[in-house]
Amino acid sequence: MSPLSSGLLGDLDPTSDRAVFRQIADQLREAIDRGRFREGEKLPSEADLVEHFGVSRMTVRNAFSILQGEGLVHAEHGRGVFVRPRPPVRRLASDRFARRHREQGKSAFIVEADAAGSHPQVDSLEVKEEKASHDISTRLGSVRRVLARRRRYLLDGKPVEFATSYLPLDIARGTPIAEPNPGPGGIYARLEELGHHLDHFEEEIRARMPSPAEVKTLRLAAGVPVIHLVRTAFDTEGRAVEVCDTVMAADAYVLSYQLPAT
Amino acid sequence: MSPLSSGLLGDLDPTSDRAVFRQIADQLREAIDRGRFREGEKLPSEADLVEHFGVSRMTVRNAFSILQGEGLVHAEHGRGVFVRPRPPVRRLASDRFARRHREQGKSAFIVEADAAGSHPQVDSLEVKEEKASHDISTRLGSVRRVLARRRRYLLDGKPVEFATSYLPLDIARGTPIAEPNPGPGGIYARLEELGHHLDHFEEEIRARMPSPAEVKTLRLAAGVPVIHLVRTAFDTEGRAVEVCDTVMAADAYVLSYQLPAT
DNA sequence: CACGCCAACTCGTATAGACGAGTGGTCGAG
DNA sequence: CTCGACCACTCGTCTATACGAGTTGGCGTG
């Protein structure tokens, strides 16, 4: 019924070396970039494009699958293909673990999200002792077993981050850190109370495509990478007292670091 | 000719809700994860899998396209589909701009790569004056025109990073900074000589899928995201004196930051 | 008016076939 | 032995068709 008003999209170049489905993807991409289709707006249906370009449906679908892989569009079964809206991003500043942010009763995530006017949630909380993976064991200095604290963070119902903290048992066992709710200021406040004065953190950042499990827990759209952040906390004696492994939906975050020019 | 030795892959579950091409992708993914196919090793050909599973070729190709999107495999025309080898990663430490690393004659990238035993290259060097984009102008404090220094970095022939430095004209024009080779210690050393003593840097990190142009310049495989890093350098008077916009192949980098626990 | 059903439209999955093009090995001519 | 032609195998592109399943809106019935 929507015969695809001419003008929005051009014609194919039969003399071009470029594959037809790539040419179609190029045209759609350009139209999106130029704002001819706005965020959240519905693109022409597969049938429309089949008719407009005079190609078979698989060719159109190939074009769409390119754009999906680029994270530009997403398809909804029974509804159409839409320009993917960019979710509001959460900025993580490098001073987010400064002591002055640790004085309040609520967790940093909740406080910060409330301030930004979003509705924060934390779920899949799980606290248990388990065998340390090789990587975690290495980072914590050859411990065999660890306390693992897992949780998922959501903003306005959308999962944005899944994190696991690992702590050596000799530090965490029998302390509030092993409780589901470790109390005001979080586990870093508890660590300091227990005499492990924090000296510095080390963060390692990678980006990659998500595993199927990560797609599921973070409800990721096609074409959205994850940021994998591994933070190690060191006390004043140089001992690694915690490793926090975080997987974030890359479209929801900007990380920000302040570096001295020394 | 290679009838796909049984045992490597199982059968489909016709009763499952999961689409056939997803089941095939799942089996291949698991076989790769378990090390049944090693890095760089060739997977069964499309024809092999068509025969093994008794499905049509498009179904097999759909399965492969999932794995490509995950960055697990890559196809080579005329050769086969291979498990994607993980390239050696370059670690970027947060002290990489410390003054003590600035004393040598060669650029930091070259020095560091040589030390790691790789063969570094820098190309597409371009230095010119241009109009500042809105974003760059904002970051540099409302300048209209800027000096832009573009270059691409390669390791062992593989492009890994594409970077552009932007500097206000009143700082850079007519100085060694506007020369293709700014001399020992790079532009940061020159800035300090010109009286702009560096105080700190601010880095913003995002991850996303690459644009087609980025795929081309970085020769990215399917399923490889980019890390987008924007660094702003501030002098001791609080003025932003440089913005460096960097796009990195995410499979080639680990960023590492050291944060004080303050 | 309210509700449910249905039809039309959407994307998802799968089949079967065709031709093109890049790669690598074999084999025969020189 | 060397080189080129050829062929088998590989993935790339494209067509045509079919049916399934989620969504939406309208229409008819109660």
From TrEMBL, chains A, B:
Keyword DNA-binding belongs to the record: yes
PROSITE patterns: HTH_GNTR
UniProt signal peptide: none
InterPro entries reported for this sequence: Bact_HTH_transcr_reg, Chorismate_lyase_/UTRA_dom_sf, Tscrpt_reg_HTH_GntR, UTRA, WH-like_DNA-bd_sf, WH_DNA-bd_sf
GO MF term list: DNA binding; DNA-binding transcription factor activity
One record GO biological process: negative regulation of DNA-templated transcription
UniProt name for this protein: GntR family transcriptional regulator
Lineage: Bacteria, Bacillati, Actinomycetota, Actinomycetes, Kitasatosporales
